[in-house]
Amino acid sequence: MNDRGYYSGFGGMFIPEILSTTFDQLIAAFRAARSDPAFWREYEAIMSTYSCRPTPLTFAENLTRHFGGARIYVKREDLNHTGAHKANNVMGQGLLVKRMGKTRVIAETGAGQHGVATATMAAKFGFECTIYMGEVDVERQRPNVFWMERLGAKVVAVRTGTRILKDAINEAFRDWVTNMDSTHYVLGTACGPHPFPEMVTYFQSIIGREARRQILEREGKLPVRVYACVGGGSNAMGLFSGFLDDPVQLVGVEAAGRGLASGAHAVRLSSPDASVGVAQGYKTYFLQNRDGQMKETHSVAAGLDYVGVSPILSQFKEIGRARFEAATDREVVDALAFTIRKEGLIPALESAHAFVQAFKEAPLLDPADAIIINQSGRGDKDIFTVADAFGDPAWQQFIIDKAERYRA
Amino acid sequence: MLETHLRKRLEHQEILLMTHIVLGYPSFEDCYRIVEAMVAGGVDLMELQIPFSEPIADGPVILMANQQALAAGATVARCLEFADRVCREFPIPFLFMSYYNILFKFGVDAFAAAMADRGVRGAIVPDLPPEEGADYLAAMDRRELAPIFIYSPNTRPERLARIATVARGFVYCVARKGVTGADTRFSAHLEDYLRRCRAATALPLAVGFGVKDRSDVEFLTGKGDIAVIGTQTIRIIETQGIGAVTPFIRGLRP
Questions:
Q1: Residues of A in contact with B53 (CB under 8 A)
Q2: Which of its termini does chain A have fewer beta carbons within 10 Å around, N or C?
Q3: What is the CA radius of gyration of chain B?
Q4: In this structure, how many other beta carbons lie within 10 angstroms of the beta carbon of residue A107?
Q5: Interface pTM (ipTM) of the complex?
Q6: Which of chain A's residues have a Cβ under 8 Å away from the Cβ of B56?
Q7: Closest CA to A339 of A61, A37, A17
């Protein structure tokens, strides 16, 4: 058999027979695109004109002074069009869809970022678009549903299973096994069956390529550590990709939710609650019980609330190429409030997980050294969730008043 | 061997009937009564689905059955106990159907051993293509159990042939794209596809996805060897109760 996308035994292609031909075609299209230098040029061109690439690398002067250790840089993926690194993957897969001649795209979404990004790409390229979103996520990220629908996408609220991201992925697969001839499934993260982990990493690697060049320009040397939050793992893989061959410590931060002891978390790589399994088409660490049934997960950040994780990150854990830590909801909200106040940056709740760990470690590092935090998305557009996380009374009163006006 | 058994049955029946239940749905006690009713109606073999939290190949009816079985406390251990009992008490072959994680977590070899111990004759694992199943194939082969593989209308000819080399018992031909439970058009197109399947393997052919009544079974007679009635029996039980199962199965063949 040809390459099935294994990373130290993680990954693979556990797909229903009906999709075997579709995956053969996708692998062939991706390989052809990747070996065509014009394809990456086209990708960079669209990302620099339609989105804001290269995104800046911001020196966080105030945070650096406050912590008194390593020089803190922030990679500004929040400045992408649609407000997160998700745009990188989506525009890349969109170009691939054009090459394959398909006319419809589907996607799952958790926080709604990937759904909005996919709906945006579909609007631009003229594709029909359906987004699957767990009912719980529809409730907590209603504004993103509003934008997806404005962008012309059909949003399907998934009412099966735990009604969050993994259930949306299952439902997207069910659509795909029916409509594969016209439809491409734009998987949003570096998970799922081969070639998705590799393909999503390839498009997201633009983050790391830029960050490496930028830090060398600014500091004249490599950072000692780079930090990224880990849900499925696409922004982490994107940043890490730039430093794989360098003596740079890669630090992934998972969602510890209400704490590891509470069971209400989404920590796959740094908790004993997870074990290796096979679901959603690939082998990796999953939060599951002894029988192999997936557990419920929790995070204040919908985008990190996922039972599995990129098989490439599982490999990094296994071979020690990356270190994985976890941040609780409480720590995340505090780090977010502090970053906003101190530096005027508004990371998404997801990205704030990376800030938590960087803040813990920066004071212990040499002031001559630099670190990079990936600000994978912007928090200001998630105002409902962030305001709830802060428990802001004036905001709550505003919503109550507004609802009263609608009722009138 | 499962194939030999099926061949013998086919000497007396033009087409065999295979049904599908989700273990623990609505309860293990009801499942037992359903098996009893199906055997009384004349089914030739049965799939016992071990419920899984992420059944990606299943449509809404079987998906809900999986969820409810798990919510009611179904475990792999209970499913094995159940299989042990029905294999001893009923004279038809039983197969397990589940997703690969259930086998993987149990230990693939241990799972095959548990099947053999209890008299389960084979397994259908829709998210385990042969390329990923070397351990599984070896474990099943050691115990003369049948790994049932799947053909789909999209499967390319060279792949049909490759799958035929590892499949045992019979091959499960998915009648159309999509998930379980949706309607299937029983057409010349399907007939053509089944002809391709027949040419690719000497094993008996089961045809499933959307088979729901006597006219569907009639259409398949002569083209396939086993008609698979999955979602429809679950619907019948949900709407008409277990009492309706025996007459429904009897009515599927002349």
A1: 161, 293-294
A2: C
A3: 17
A4: 30
A5: 0.96
A6: 16, 170, 173-174, 280-281
A7: A61
Residue A376 bears catalytic tag? yes
Per-residue pLDDT of A205-224, as tens digits, reads: 999 999 999 999 999 999 99
From chain B, the residues in CB contact with A164 under 8 A are none
Q: Return residues 262-291 of A near B (CB < 8 Å).
A: 275, 277-281, 286, 288, 290-291
Domain B2-249 falls in which CATH fold? Answer: TIM Barrel (3.20.20)
Q: Coil, strand, or helix at residue A101?
A: coil
**Is A182 an 8 Å CB contact of chain B?**
no
Tally: H helices and E strands in chain A: 15, 14
Q: Return the domain boundaries, chain A.
A: 6-48+86-196, 53-83+205-390
If we measure between CA atoms, which residue out of A242, A228, A248, A377 comes closest to residue A310?
A: A228
Chain B interface includes A178 (CB < 8 A):
yes
Nearest-by-CA chain A residue for B50: A291
Active site residue B84: no
pLDDT digits (tens, 9 = 90+) for B56-111: 999 989 999 999 999 999 999 999 999 999 999 999 999 999 999 999 999 999 99
Q: Catalytic: A221?
A: no
Q: What is the dotted CATH code of the domain comprising A53-83+205-390?
A: 3.40.50.1100
Structure tokens at B242: 């277990």
Measure CB to CB from residue B126 to each of A16, A24, A279 and give the nearest one: A16
Q: Are A161 and B150 within 8 A, CB to CB?
A: no
Question: Options 3.40.50.1100, 2.160.10.10, 3.40.190.150, 3.40.50.300; which CATH number does A6-48+86-196 get?
Answer: 3.40.50.1100
Q: Where are the domains of chain B?
A: 2-249
